[in-house]
Amino acid sequence: MKKALITGINGQDGSYLSEYLIKQGYQVHGILRRHSVAENQDVRIKDMDVKTYYGELTDEISLFKILRKVKPDVIYNLAAMSHVGISNELPIFTVKTNSLAVMQLLELAKEICPEAKIYQASSSEMFGNSIDKDGFQRLSTTMNPVSPYGCSKVMAYNLIRYYRNAYNKFYCNGILFNHESPRRGSNFVTNKVIKSIVMIKKNIIKKLELGNLDSMRDWGHSKDYVRAMHLIVNHKKADDFVIATGETRSVKDMVNYVFAKLSIPVKKHLSINKKYFRPEELKYLKGDCSKAKKILKWKPKNNIKSLIKIMIDAELKRLKNI
Ligand code: GDD
User: Fold this and answer.
1) Is residue 175 within 8 Å of residue 71, measured between CB atoms?
2) Residue from 19, 125, 180, 315 carrying the catalytic annotation
3) What is the DSSP string of 47-78?
4) Average pLDDT of each block of 10 consecutive residues along the chain (322 residues)?
5) Relative to the CA of 212, which ligand 1 atom is closest?
6) CA nearest to 262, candidates 199, 179, 211, 190
7) Residue 141 CA to ligand 1 centre (angstroms)
8) CA 5 to CA 70: how far, in whole Å?
9) Is 229 helix (H, G, I), strand (E, B) or coil?
């Protein structure tokens, strides 16, 4: 059985990837960060057949021990400080976790499991406000990040490419555009909006408070994107790919759509709070995933509308079961 090691296994992507890899016949191992609320430690993966280890990307000794114990065939590095807004409050921690720790991981992997393939969770946030003339971002688009998070991910992206070339390693980047699901953290905009509007519908809360409504995002379903991760790692050549839907919508359109779907008037229940604005906003994302479509034969099964329906239904079900 091939062994996959997932950092960030208890995250949205880590949990969907675990399910997917188990079905593909992998033995799945994962690193769990200690959480002060014990119930939240492994909340997304607790019923899955995975082996977990306490660890922390920035704690190189823990990483060393886990790599030596597992000797993985493939490592999916999904752990990160993944909230763009919060990266402005925690810039040093963000860079330590998202950049320096990746270098540590690459150095340790080189010594302990030199044949292991590595997938790095790279991000469309790396492009910042660069847009090609045709309105898309792709591998050749200049990276011009506008957040500590974006800067940290550019460094990790380049480290993967450098180690791949310098040491002839099977290391790859998936540049994933925004991807959501019912398992998304509730401080990311889609899940915050959907959970809040469903709770307004149920008279549990009265208001939804948001920040910038004008930014545009290319939103896909996390389940579709973990399929792409596996395809990237199993392609015959180590390479980098953009994974996106190729459609973009403003936050405002997404919010209006969810309000309309639940038949609730927007004006009465929505307010803007400056605290959710970022020092510099990434205004527009739309990914060109034609390379993944052509080479990996990957395409998303969901679009923003099917994704929102899945997330609303899941939230209604969750509230019913409380
Ligand atoms: N989180 C949040 N909360 N975002 C808000 C809010 C709010 O109350 N109000 C407006 N927004 C806007 C943000 O300013 C941003 O323009 C947009 O909604 C999306 O925000 P997020 O859902 O937090 O995602 P993100 O685009 O910043 O980052 C996500 O996508 C990246 C890929 O592009 C994260 O998943 C990153 O980890 C990922 O790399």
Assistant:
1) no
2) 125
3) TS-EEEEE--TT-HHHHHHHHHHH--SEEEE-
4) 97 98 98 90 94 96 98 98 98 98 98 98 98 98 98 98 98 98 97 97 96 98 98 98 98 98 95 97 98 98 97 95 82
5) 10
6) 199
7) 21
8) 8
9) helix
User: 36-70 in b/e burial notation, b at 16+ Cβ within 10 A?
Assistant: eeeeebbebbeeeebebbebbbbeeebbeebbeeb
Residue type, 95: V
Give the C-alpha distances (Å, rounded to integers) separating 197 from 183, 212, 236: 17, 17, 45
Residue 267 gets the label, from left (phi > 0), alpha (psi -120 to 50) or beta, of alpha
Q: What is the pTM of this model?
A: 0.97
Q: Please give the helix or strand (H or E) that residue 163 lies within, else none.
A: helix 148-167
Nearest CA to ligand 1 atom 9: 211
* Gap between the Cα atoms of 150 and 103, Å rounded: 17
Atom number, ligand 1, closest to the C-alpha of residue 153: 39
